[in-house]
Write a structure and sequence with these properties.
By secondary structure, this protein is an alpha+beta fold. Helices cover 23% and strands 25% of the residues.
Length: 342
């Protein structure tokens, strides 16, 4: 009789999954990790910028005062932006996942779905903090906040009377490779506009690498950089995570605007969040409703997970966030456009 070998296709075996589920989505939120988060209140976000107007004069002995002036104030107002991530899972899928031997990450399927929804929401907010139009209930991102000829926070910056509310915008009009001279001149212009230089410069990895190529290779791979961020001191390897140019820390973010560098002063840029009404009571008791993360650690954005009404054998919820990116002092920030990466 011929030899019949038992091969894999003749067997009935359980499908086993090695280890846990492997997330392959990049949801790191570099911008949100670089600025502070402030708890807001009320129907909108409002502050009062003050412009130069006070006068100083030379006078003759005994002369009467005749020229008077004082700094002027304006009203800046931003509306809250509203974003959410919705989760909907059937009861059968949760029951089946809970009784499966692998992968372990699906055993608590509902919890994982809510966590993933929160991470996606963090990533979306980070993206909109660059590109958000600021209309309706959207984030007013850096693209509109760091400008010199538009309306931001209800203040018309095309009006020369509001010149001090403008940002420094450097646009050579054609793709231009960065040099130390150009970067230092950008920083100089921001400093001359407001008296302080930016401490953070955010850009895409391609722009970051172009700036990194300006450094000597040995220095780039050996020098350690210490960055005093809004959440404590961060030590970064100069060749991998950050580059320092005259005290301004260049950091990469995949969500940053292509071929651009945003210069920020973290003292005047923050993310303002509006907690859910019930959350204020929980905060007073030292309990947070939902702590989202971007896959690299928790983010204090005060999300609220809210169960929705059942309409069948499934569970639904929405993860809600109310907040806004706020640039309180636009003239302390700036941007360079048309940065060549080739």
């Amino acid at each position: 009789m011929a030899d019949v070998i038992t091969t894999l296709d003749l067997l009935t075996l359980a499908q086993e999954y090695r280890g846990d589920i492997v997330r392959t989505v990049n949801r790191k939120a570099a911008l949100l990790r670089s600025i502070s988060v402030v708890v807001g209140s009320g129907k909108n976000i409002a502050w009062a910028p003050e412009y130069d107007g006070a006068l100083v004069e030379n006078y003759a002995d005994g002369a009467d005062a005749s020229n008077f002036g004082q700094d002027t104030q304006d009203s800046a107002i931003l509306n809250w932006s509203l974003y959410r991530s919705n989760v909907h899972i059937s009861q059968l899928s949760m029951d089946a996942a809970a009784t499966s031997s692998s992968p372990m990450g699906n055993r608590a399927l509902w919890a994982r779905a809510v966590q993933n929804g929160g991470m996606a929401l963090v990533k979306h907010v980070n993206e909109k903090c660059y590109s958000g139009a600021g209309t309706g209930t959207t984030v007013a991102g850096l693209a509109v906040a760091i400008e010199d000829d538009n309306t931001y926070a209800t203040i018309d910056r095309t009006d020369s009377a509001n010149a001090k509310f403008r940002s420094t915008v450097v646009d050579p009009g054609v793709a231009t490779a960065p040099t130390f001279a150009l970067l230092r001149d950008d920083i100089r212009q921001v400093e001359e506009a407001c008296g302080e230089q930016p401490n953070i410069a955010l850009c895409k990895p391609a722009v970051f690498n172009k700036v990194a190529s300006l450094f000597d290779a040995t220095r780039r791979y050996t020098q350690q950089v210490e960055f005093d961020g809004p959440r404590g001191q961060i030590k970064l390897d100069l060749g991998v995570q950050a580059l320092e140019v005259d005290g301004t820390m260049f950091m990469k973010d995949v969500d940053a605007t292509a071929n651009a560098i945003y210069y920020l002063n973290s003292d005047y840029v923050h993310l303002e969040v509006l907690p859910h009404a019930e959350m204020r009571e929980w905060m007073a008791a030292g309990v947070l409703d939902f702590a989202p993360e971007d896959g690299f650690g928790p983010m204090p954005l005060m999300f609220h997970a809210e169960a929705l009404a059942k309409a069948g054998a499934s569970e639904k919820c929405q993860i809600l966030w109310t907040g806004q990116l706020v640039v309180r002092r636009p003239n302390a920030c700036g941007k360079r456009l048309n940065v060549s990466t080739s």
